[in-house]
Amino acid sequence: xxxxxxxxxxxxxxxxxxxxxxxxxxxxxxxxxxxxxxxxxxxxxxxxxxxxxxxxxxxxxxxxxxxxxxxxxxxxxxxxxxxxxxxxxxxxxxxxxxxxxxxxxxxxxxxxxxxxxxxx
Length: 120
Prior knowledge:
single chain; mainly alpha; 5 helices; elongated; DUF742 domain-containing protein; DUF742
């Protein structure tokens, strides 16, 4: 039976290998906006097709965990399992999200502008 258009052939819960939690306990704290980058080592055949898809997805450059989940058409929770497996094996690197920008003190900017004008 062919799945309807847009539906996954393999249910997302099978991607986790039937696990209730990732092997790496730190993965439970992965932020959805954490940034994933790949290492140069190719995952072995012990990893599933979805792991390899995630690793290949990062070839052009870093993506957030939530972006990876969207590209793979998986729930973020399932993408956490894949990322945790690959981070633990050294095939991916994860870093915290970029912090939000802080407001700049307006007086500092005004003093800088006055100083730049004085250079003319």
